[in-house]
Write a structure and sequence with these properties.
With about 120 residues, this protein is mostly beta strands. The protein contains no helices and 11 strands. The chain has strands spanning about 5, 10-15, 20-25, 30-40, 45-50, 55-60, 65-70, 75-80, 90-100, 105-110, 110-115. Strands 2, 4, 5, 6, 9, 10 and 11 form a 7-stranded mixed sheet that branches. It has a 4-stranded antiparallel sheet with strand order 1-3-8-7, with no helix packed on it.
Length: about 120
Amino acid sequence: QVQLVESGGGLVQAGGSLRLSCAASGSGFSISDMGWYRQAPGKQRELVASSTSAGNTNYADSVKGRFTISRDNAKNTVYLEMNSLKPEDTAVYYCVATIYSGRWYNTWGQGTQVTVSS
């Protein structure tokens, strides 16, 4: 069973920066796409950014130019660099990965809280 472990969330003032990390652990697997979603209170979970194994990226319009997704495929890790944070970025951020281990499936991390104060 592949597990995703996230880290790097916290409290930051508006205009500040945070870096989230998500590492996949387990054995006998490979990873295709990895990405980050977020869910604010009372709102639906939404895609923030995604990356294919080849490094092609996609971003929500609301974070373009401020957030950067990157991967270290050798470490099975994906990062989300968040700059110029706004109070509306406050949410629980979830990592997701498309895993192949005999079959394809998506697995999610436990989530990490990001709070941006005004």
